[in-house]
């Protein structure tokens, strides 16, 4: 396989409550979440979406959305970002987004590498009863 065979793809998507730098290593410290027990619904959240993209060098568009498992179509969380993939590099893209979730259950956070690939990361929302 050579670089011409590589298809643009999102190889991971994490929904994180916090993201920070590790002072010792310089790497990222991620706190991914898959379940939140909240006091009441609807609930407003601020999360960091971390998408890892592997693609041939070039310019791409990356969009993020969210939808309840029982709903059709995702709600766009931010204007699609134009991202640049450098030769011999992968892209680690982070977006801080605010969202209001209107009911309990399973939500799918989605990343879409426009015209190429998509990935989902589920989060369950429940009340603390």
Molecular structure report:
The chain has 129 residues and is mainly beta. The chain has a single domain, classed as Sandwich (Immunoglobulin-like), CATH 2.60.40. It is 0% helix and 64% strand. It contains no helices and ten strands. Strands 3, 5, 6, 7, 9 and 10 form a six-stranded mixed β-sheet that branches. A four-stranded antiparallel β-sheet has the order 2-1-4-8, with no helix packed on it. Strand 5 and strand 6 (75-76) form a beta hairpin. 18% of the residues are buried. The mean pLDDT is 94.
Topology (SSEs and partners):
Blueprint lengths: L8 E13 L6 E5 L2 E4 L4 E12 L3 E11 L6 E2 L4 E5 L5 E11 L3 E9 L3 E11 L2
Parallel strand pairs: 3-10
Antiparallel strand pairs: 1-2, 1-4, 4-8, 5-6, 5-7, 5-9, 9-10
Q: Mind telling me the CATH class?
A: Mainly Beta
First-last Cα distance: 53 Å
Query: Main β-sheet: number of strands, strand sense, barrel status?
Result: 6 strands, mixed
Q: Averaging pLDDT over every residue, what do you get?
A: 94
- According to DSSP, the number of beta strands is 10
Query: Which ranges are low-confidence, i.e. pLDDT below 50, for 5 or more consecutive residues?
Result: none
CATH topology: Immunoglobulin-like
CATH superfamily: Immunoglobulins
CATH architecture: Sandwich
Quick overview of this protein structure:
The chain is an all-beta fold and 129 residues long. It is built from no helices and ten strands. The radius of gyration is 16 Å and the shape is globular.
Can you tag this structure with a few keywords?
129 residues; mainly beta; Immunoglobulin-like; 6-stranded mixed beta sheet
